[in-house]
Amino acid sequence: MRTVFWDYDNNTVKMIDQRQLPFEFVVAEFDDYHDVARSIREMYVRGAPAIGATAAFGMALAARKSRAKDLKTLRSDLEGAAETLNAARPTAVNLSWAVASQIDVAGDESLKNIGELRQALLTSAQRIADDDVELNRQMGFNGAELVSDGDTILHHCNTGALATVDWGTALGVIFAAHEQGKKVHVLVDETRPRLQGSRLTAWELKNRGISFDLIADNAAGHFMRTGQVDIVLVGSDRTAANGDVANKIGTYKLAVVAKENGIPFYPVVPTSTIDLALANGDLIPIEERTPDEVLKAIDRPIAPDGITARNPAFDVTPHRFVTGIVTEMGVVYPPYGKHLRKAVEASRRGEWRPMSKSPSND
Ligand code: MRU
């Protein structure tokens, strides 16, 4: 089942409510783009590619629900919807990328009437979702070349099927290595404060029968210094033109300790997550979420009443700590300024090849 999808019978957007996992499996359904924006903000759906696809479907929903009687009014309604969806979460560039590409589709002058525009937005949202699955598989098998039989992989946050439309980014590499028959073991950072590692990554690895241990975030350095980690794989919410990588809070610390211990550190990043408009990571907006996520764990207080907390959701890892960046175009190495641009441009020309065949397709 996909993490997010359009229900063609009801004309609604459906998504797995990830706030409930691993305790309950609930599918939420929305027929209004305001609720889709809320679902992104409140993290029913999360993970950069997943929220991009969700926002694209949100735009299709906005076009369906608009009462506009002419194309001009509908396009202006869509600008409003774009603003609401873009404001839901600031760091993952996939969100604004998907919304901007829907605005481009809506602006196509060859669309003759409201019906055609609505159909064009739905077709294009579906394509964004389908492409995400295909390119994740491509990226997974590109990255699996970096993983050897017997490796122990350190992983942060959740980057699997739940963070994308299906399959995943960094976890997708691990799934691909596993499908190739490599025996891998994963050390899963629990990823406080929202516990995407213990709730979601552990759920996905358990379902696939891949060997893993859950570790407290604070234990990662110990495992790296004592020679128990072969490679670190993470995702990214936005990667700047120079290769600086924004990802879940705590990633920077892992990259620094990995370098100190000579362990390769690879973000796994679809080119839709690369923001060539930003020269470096300092320009990436960092989402600050409610202190409540730090003051509580799964809604139960874990700190004295009335104290303050800070809760940046992401951090930036400077490119000097990044061994290479796995994309659907292959593994990109320094100098990132030149090589990332080449990969993004080639992908936009459609030069990545969908996987026609992989072990799981046999
Ligand atoms: O706050 P989240 O759970 O949306 O953060 C997700 C991550 O940090 C992932 O590593 C990132 O989106 C890329 S993986 C698909």
CATH class (first level) name of the largest domain: Alpha Beta
List low-confidence stretches: 356-362
CATH architecture of the largest domain: 3-Layer(aba) Sandwich
* End-to-end distance: 19 Å
User: Which percent band covers the strand fraction?
Assistant: 15-25%
Bound molecule kinds, no repeats: 5-S-methyl-1-O-phosphono-5-thio-D-ribulose
- Percent of residues in helices comes to 25-40%
Widest β-sheet, arrangement of strands: 6-5-4-7-10
**Secondary-structure element order, as H and E?**
EEEHHHHHEHEHEHEEEHEEHEEEEEH
Give the total of beta strands: 16
Please give the largest β-sheet.
5 strands, parallel
Rg over alpha carbons: 20 Å
Query: Any idea how many domains?
Result: 2
Oligomer state equals single chain
Look at the structure and name the CATH superfamily of the largest domain. Answer: Translation initiation factor eif-2b, domain 2
Nearest-integer average pLDDT? 96
**What's the helix count?**
11
CATH topology of the largest domain: Rossmann fold
Q: Quick one: overall form?
A: globular
Structural class: alpha/beta
Can you give a write-up of this model?
The two termini are 19 Å apart. Strand 1 and strand 2 (12-16) form a beta hairpin. The protein is of the alpha/beta class. The strands form 5 sheets. The chain has a 5-stranded parallel sheet with strand order 6-5-4-7-10, sandwiched between helices. The longest helix is centred in the middle third of the chain and has 31 residues, at 114-144. The protein folds into 2 domains: 4-135, Four Helix Bundle (Hemerythrin (Met), subunit A) (Up-down Bundle); 142-348, Rossmann fold (3-Layer(aba) Sandwich), CATH 3.40.50.10470. It has helices at residues 33-41, 48-65, 71-86, 93-106, 114-144, 170-179, 196-208, 220-225, 251-260, 292-295, 336-348; strands spanning 4-7, 12-16, 27-30, 152-155, 185-189, 211-215, 231-234, 238-240, 245-248, 265-267, 274-275, 296-297, 300-301, 314-317, 325-327, 330-332. Residues 356-362 have low confidence and may be disordered. The radius of gyration is 20 Å and the shape is globular. The structure holds 5-S-methyl-1-O-phosphono-5-thio-D-ribulose. 5-S-methyl-1-O-phosphono-5-thio-D-ribulose (MRU) binds at residues 46-49, 92, 157, 159, 163-164, 169, 196, 235-237, 247-248, 313. 5-S-methyl-1-O-phosphono-5-thio-D-ribulose binds at residues 46-49, 92, 157, 159, 163-164, 169, 196, 235-237, 247-248, 313.
